[in-house]
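Protein 1 of 2
SEQ + STRUCT:
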Amino acid sequence: MAMRLSMRRQLLRFKTPLPTAFGELSEREIVTVQLTGQDGISGFGEAAPLAPYDGIGIERTLEALERHSQVFAELDDGALPTNLLDACRNADPLPQALSAIDLALWDRAGRRERKPVCALLVDNPADAVPVNATLAALDRAGAAREAAKAVAGGFRCLKVKVGIGDDAGRVAAVRAAAGQEVSLRLDANGAWNVEQAVSTINALSATGLELVEEPTHGLAQVRQVRDQVPVRIAIDETAAEPGALASGAADAVCLKLSRCGGISGLLAAASLVRASGAEVYIASTFDGPLGVAGALHAAAALASRGPLAPCGLATLSLFEGLEDRLPAHGGEVRVPTGPGLGVEPL
């Protein structure tokens, strides 16, 4: 009894180009997958590689998914999802493709059981996940306007991309517009070396920062920065380095479905991070609705086991012509309650 895996490429465009230290993002290409069994029940997943961020492009991801498709064509439909995922991993271990498969398997399981994925993961999942707002403006006035709008919308945590020019001016403008009660985190995407990171963070620390994410790349460099600044340090890209999750090199770790290989891999990674004494939060790689929904279900499970910092999952509103099916209200996004992932594919 074979299973059938189909794939569809989709292009998403940002309303406004998003500046980062690794370049400006104006569009995203994702792959939606559909996994259908002999019972006629389908599960949907999504691959969201981001080459400037993780070095993996859409063609390499499709190549891996084609290999996974052969696995499903040859395996018994009654095999356990973990066995199916292991078989796909043996065929091609690319995390970005495995994430789509993992999401589709969980979605299909939830649809079969008529339960949301988070209820399959834990007995007492959180109903909502705290989220941050991501500010995209490069100028001070624009950043201030975005900050004021986000705070008026209920966000209690703002994220500012830095390492892209006039950091001090924009951060000061955001703090002035947001007020002192709102948490402010910075994301440098590894733009600085150790000396630059230490100097910049020390200069900006007076504005009151929750944390600085990925000030530089590499565990050794992150440790050096952390030892010399009065601000909590988080890792994102560096979390892919062998041993990083359990290293205790940072105060917090940003986890992403795409890099972890899906919900299953993300929950395993979170256990390692928390065992090291570091805090966990989840962010999207500007995924589509399925990827964001999967991350929300994972976050709901993690929140039931310990504190979860605001997550970078309020990102669907950044896209042009795309209905925000998972909007933020009062600084939170409600976890979908429908069967499976709780959202339909684009």
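Protein 2 of 2
SEQ + STRUCT:
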Amino acid sequence: MNHIVFDLGGVVLEWSPYTLLKNYFSNSIDQELVIQKIINHPDWIQFDCDTMGSKEVAERGAKRTGLPLQKLEAFLEDVPASLQPKPESVDIIKELHKAGIPLYVLSNMSRPSWDYISRTYGFWELFSGKVVSCLAGKAKPDPSIFTYLLGKFQLNPRETLFIDDTSVNITAARQTGMQALQFSSPDQCRKDLREFGIL
């Protein structure tokens, strides 16, 4: 495989909304409301594409769910710092980079989260290029963001492996002709990469 593309949240970085939500909503019903009516709502894609700000996401979410606006705003404010690196995933990236394989990022990420992680973590130099939804104005699983990535960096889809933790994004990548593997853990990812003849 000539190129490898990594998703960020859930793959390179921790993304555990249920864990974070427990800081604001002790009731599991309220936690599930936030997941289903805010994070899995189309507003979240607009948030990731930088066409809707966190204040509007919180306000609209509060109206849909009846949950306190201040708690939703506080939750959204704490999302960026919750995106901590997965050390084992970063180790894999370092090994691939050392092996001379060009690495890329393709991630849905809101502007506040991207601003935070891009200035906080120091492994970005390991990537040859990055496509992030808040900068591109489009988001997975829309096929256009995959074709945008391939065109921007002149990647042959048949020679490009995409790694993501979400099945719908894996399906979208394969529909563009890319190879893809679904991430569930760093150990599993390392095993799958070996099966691809990598690492």
